[in-house]
Amino acid sequence: MAFIRSYVVPEGFPDSVTPSYVPYMTWRALKHFFGGAMGVFTTRTLLSSVGVSQSKVTPGAIAINWILKDGAGRVGKMLFARQGKKFDYDLKQLRFSSDLLLEIGAGIELATAAFPQFFLPMACVANVVKNVAAVTSTSTRTPIYKAYARGENIGDVTAKGESVGNIADLLGTGLSIFISKRNPSLVTSFAFLSCGYLLSSYHEVRSVVLNTLNRARFTVAVNSFIKTGHIPSLKEGNSQETIFNPPWRHEPIAIGSRFGEAFQEPASFVATRPLFEDERYMVTYNPAKDKVYALLKDQAKSDDIIKAAFHAHVLLHFINASHARKQMNSKRSDHYGNPCGSCAAAPWRHARHWGSAIRAAKADGAQGEAVKERSVSVVLLSGGQGKRMGASMPKQYLPLLGLPIALHSLKTFCQLKEVKEVVVVCDPDYKDVFEGSIENVQIPIKFALPGKERQDSVFNGLQEVDGDSELVCIHDSARPLVSSEDVKKVLEDAAVHGAAVLGVPVKATIKEADNNSFVVKTLDRKTLWEMQTPQVMKPNLLKDGFELVKRDGLEVTDDVSIVEYLKHPVYITEGSYTNIKVTTPDDLLLAERLMNEK
């Protein structure tokens, strides 16, 4: 057994290779088995067609035909080598395509049996096709083996991989020689062996896990992030990658395009250019070609290319959503000057417009299902002391237009069909404020004790949440003016991205200061947002985040910070500036005025 292992597995196996090595080699061996079996039938057919079995044909004529056939194949291999750059970034797609070409070539070779008078042209075409497949297979072999090698053992992995292929090829050849003596049907044999070969090839390529990004894997990652907020792992990204791209397939995105291809008219460029003054790229949509173009400036680096590609995919996603497209055209055509320019508005610079477009796209089915009825648990934080208010009771229980502050937001949540329960985190002495305070409440009101810190109160509230809830919505009861429209928006975004928080763009100039109150620098407010509540997360994210925070003793400033520590993206839903937090007497007066203006 050790002797056999020395020929088929790398030294140190299985620790010397990645886990996906075994399934890859299994399918590779099967593919070579079917390939070896196929070779017997094609060789036999070619020899018969060229005239080996015919006594009237001279050996010289046979040799010339055979040499011409092989020469045509070498020319085809040489000409196709100029496509070599594509082997580096689309190697899985090209690897499967090469096996498909190999089967086409084998089919043409078998067809020479029916048309022996056309042997030379048919054999030449078949050999060109098979040599193109061979150069593709050879060129993509090393990067695949490299992905499986752990350490500096690429040579060992390659040698053992080729050994496995040769053994399987010999086994297939031997079995095929035995079967061919019984003169089976060529068509039936070809159909069976070809299906086995292509099926093995597909699974062989599918099992390859590459740790680099190409267009296909990048598309998988971006689409997953846009639709679910989840960035797939390497294994997930590779498993979801499209393996076969037909030549006639329309590519909706072009990276590194020329100016003349991207812009339909000069006005489109004039409208789009100002949006990307601070970037090393531009992104636009050409409706005449139904394609998104990413143009790279001379100073563009690898990070800029990734940003441009991401921006192009986001733009394409919105364009494909009809409702979002209508909304962008109607809401932003005046603001940006023309539809091409408006579509290219950078999402991180104009998040408020893109956020509404996302919700419109979701309504059209592009983002998935809306938030289900009775699927959200609200955790209403009402345990703070509110010392800055200087009142005799916590601020959330002070009257606001005849009703305690905390009850205003409770009333808002109880009227939403998405909410299934409200967990009030409060001091037991104030439970009576909430019990029976709102008429016609159709959902249960639960209670939890406040903790020493805000995160402790949230954790206590989480323990009372229904296990079947799909979202947990955490709200500060000192924000009585939150609107039901804003709550619905943040719930929808959390359902899509896993975590979302209401926020508003910072309007004031923000400066960083040192300990002596001297300005260190002025921050770019275009990227700054003031956070509000509700802050909404999926329960599993919140639970996992709490485990990490408690285990590592991490500091939490707001609720979504818990999720941020998991490296999970948090979406900012643009809220309203009227959603103020009542902290001081002036805030209370402002809240009264805002409510009177409703």
Task: Report what the structure shows.
By secondary structure, this protein is of the alpha/beta class. It folds into three domains: 2-206, MFS general substrate transporter like domains (Growth Hormone, Chain: A); 250-363, no CATH class; 376-597, Spore Coat Polysaccharide Biosynthesis Protein SpsA, Chain A, CATH 3.90.550. Helices cover 53% and strands 12% of the residues. The chain contains 23 helices and 14 strands. The strands form four sheets. A seven-stranded mixed β-sheet has the order 8-7-4-9-13-10-14, with helices on both faces. Strand 7, helix 18 and strand 8 form a beta-alpha-beta unit. Helix 2 (21-50) runs parallel beside helix 5, helix 2 runs antiparallel to helix 6 and helix 9 crosses helix 13 (302-320). The longest helix is centred in the first third of the chain and has 30 residues, at 21-50. Residues 52-58 and 327-369 have low confidence and may be disordered.
Keywords:
alpha/beta, Growth Hormone, Chain: A, Spore Coat Polysaccharide Biosynthesis Protein SpsA, Chain A, 3 domains, three-stranded mixed beta sheet, transferase, UVB_sens_RUS_dom, 2-C-methyl-D-erythritol 4-phosphate cytidylyltransferase, chloroplastic, nucleotidyltransferase
Can you give the mean pLDDT? Answer: 82
Q: How is the CATH topology of the largest domain named? A: Spore Coat Polysaccharide Biosynthesis Protein SpsA, Chain A
Shape by Cα distribution? elongated
The name of the CATH architecture of the largest domain is Alpha-Beta Complex
Query: N- to C-terminal separation?
Result: 83 Å
Total helical segments: 23
GO molecular function: 2-C-methyl-D-erythritol 4-phosphate cytidylyltransferase activity
Keywords: Isoprene biosynthesis, Nucleotidyltransferase, Transferase
Family: Belongs to the IspD/TarI cytidylyltransferase family. IspD subfamily. Belongs to the RUS1 family.
Protein name: 2-C-methyl-D-erythritol 4-phosphate cytidylyltransferase, chloroplastic
